[in-house]
Design brief:
- By secondary structure, the protein is an alpha+beta fold.
- The chain has three helices and six strands.
- Strands 1, 2, 3, 4, 5 and 6 form a six-stranded antiparallel sheet that branches.
- β5 and β6 form a beta hairpin.
- It is elongated, with a radius of gyration of 15 Å.
- It starts with a strand and ends with a helix.
Length: about 130
């Protein structure tokens, strides 16, 4: 699927560092939450997959920081899901402050699924989203 989905979130005080901006590591939490919500919106339950022996794993995370969020900011995480190769998928993600179109962070998160023997594959639950 090539369209972006959007998730609106707000910065909490404890996510900021001594400089008053969101700590760089916190952005990965925002991105992960948005990926899980994306999957849920497409009727894919991350926890149920894991219980059935299908583990979705991140194998590469590329983040480009272009600006900063501060306490109380509302922001949008845009997420798009595409096939990268036969065994890999890619989440393309962007973070914007709500009401602005300036990208504060862009990310490319590469992942795959592994079965209970640790072999990578694309499960049927995801395959239909990657057409």
């Amino acid at each position: 699927m090539s369209e972006f989905s959007e998730l609106v979130l707000s910065v909490r005080d404890y996510e900021c560092d001594l400089q008053g901006v969101v700590n760089n590591a916190v952005y990965q939490n925002y991105l992960e939450h948005a990926r899980h919500e994306y999957l849920k919106s497409h009727h894919i339950d991350f926890a149920a997959l894991a219980k059935s022996g299908i583990n979705l794993v991140v194998i590469r995370a590329e983040l480009d920081y272009k600006g900063s969020l501060t306490s109380g900011d509302s922001f949008i995480v845009r997420t798009r899901f595409v096939r990268k190769s036969r065994l890999k998928f890619l989440f393309i993600q962007e973070i914007y402050r709500q009401g602005e179109e300036k990208i504060l962070l862009s990310a490319a998160i590469t992942g795959t699924a592994v079965n209970d023997r640790g072999k990578p594959f694309i499960p049927k639950e995801l395959d239909h989203l990657l057409k």
